[in-house]
């Protein structure tokens, strides 16, 4: 067995992963190099990709329209390679707050946000987000007033979801790059708001 | 009564038997029931995003009356109310 660290025993799933991977390599179905390249690719993709999309939508009203109409095509427009990603973008407004969950497993727009955080995959988040979203958001430090409608999107099948948060006030005239710096991963899942301009100034 | 409602395994338990409105047609996708058996999934099946009122899904829901829940469901797992 290759060096997987000897400081604690492998879990069932770690062992399964290694066994399966080694078998696939042994049988010539994939090579180690291909597996490594894929892992590297996955690690390289992070929320800054989604942030680019959001910042573009904040500064370009026509792009925003296209993004809401067809998220996949709008991402491709920015040259983001998003194989097999069928994207639905949901927009926050003064009256509506959107949040994303996958109750069946842990579907997540990895192509735009990278590897999902552990809490997103937790049973706690997955079961409670559809049942009591306001309480869950409160635990994230996000208080949503009763006058604001909450829309929870359960990604149960083919589509993946991205929240288009509201542009923070006090950012008039900012460049796309600077705006993108305010767009956090959690704000694109809908459990937080983007950073406020003071925070990064 | 809701513990084991009838429905397809990929229709979440909590939404089975609830009445919602189609929010949009997502397109047609290979039938997951067939894919699970390593068949080609054709003909493709229409997939909808269906919108439910939280108060309809959870009678004791705490939150605004207007709160919504949206779920993707394949056409053949839906029925007319």
Strand order of the largest sheet of chain B: 1-2-3
- CATH level 3 topology of chain B: SH3 type barrels
In the predicted model, the low-confidence regions of chain B spanning at least 5 consecutive residues are none
Overall helicity of chain B: under 10%
Strand content of chain A: 5-15%
Second-tier CATH architecture of the largest domain in chain A: Alpha-Beta Complex
Coarse structural class of chain B: mainly beta
CATH fold category name of the largest domain in chain A: Nitrile Hydratase, Chain A
Helix and strand string of chain B, N-terminal first? Answer: EHEHE
Kindly provide the radius of gyration of chain A, computed on alpha-carbon positions and rounded to a whole number of angstroms.
19 Å
Q: Return the CATH architecture of chain B.
A: Roll
Q: Which CATH class of chain B?
A: Mainly Beta
Span between termini of chain A: 50 Å
Number of strands of chain B: 3
The multimeric state of the shown protein is heterodimer
Number of helices of chain A: 12
The 3D shape of chain A can be described as globular
């Amino acid at each position: 067995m290759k060096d997987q660290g000897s400081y604690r025993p492998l879990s069932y799933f770690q062992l399964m992963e290694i066994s399966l991977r080694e078998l696939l390599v042994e049988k010539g179905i994939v090579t180690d190099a291909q597996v490594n390249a894929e892992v590297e690719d996955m690690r390289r993709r992070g929320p800054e990709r989604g942030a680019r999309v959001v910042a573009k939508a904040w500064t370009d009203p026509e792009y925003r329209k296209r993004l809401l109409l067809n998220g996949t095509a709008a991402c491709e427009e920015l040259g983001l390679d998003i194989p097999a990603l069928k994207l639905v973008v949901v927009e926050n407004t003064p009256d509506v707050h959107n949040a994303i969950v996958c109750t069946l497993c842990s579907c997540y727009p990895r192509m735009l946000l990278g590897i999902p955080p552990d809490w997103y995959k937790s049973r706690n988040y997955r079961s409670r987000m559809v049942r009591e979203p306001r309480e869950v958001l409160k635990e994230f430090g996000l208080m949503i007033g009763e006058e604001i409608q909450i829309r929870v999107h359960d990604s149960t099948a083919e589509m993946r979801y991205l929240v288009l948060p509201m542009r923070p006030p006090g950012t008039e005239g900012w460049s796309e790059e600077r705006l993108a710096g305010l767009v956090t991963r959690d704000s694109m899942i809908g459990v937080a708001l983007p950073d406020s301009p003071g925070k990064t100034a | 009564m809701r513990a084991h409602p009838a429905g397809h395994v990929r229709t979440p338990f909590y939404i089975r038997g609830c009445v919602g409105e189609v929010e949009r047609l997502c397109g047609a996708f290979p039938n997951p029931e067939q894919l699970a058996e390593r068949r080609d999934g054709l003909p493709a099946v229409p997939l909808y995003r269906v919108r439910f009122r939280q108060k309809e899904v959870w009678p004791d829901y705490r939150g605004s009356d207007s709160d919504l829940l949206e779920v993707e469901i394949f056409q053949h797992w839906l029925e007319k109310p």
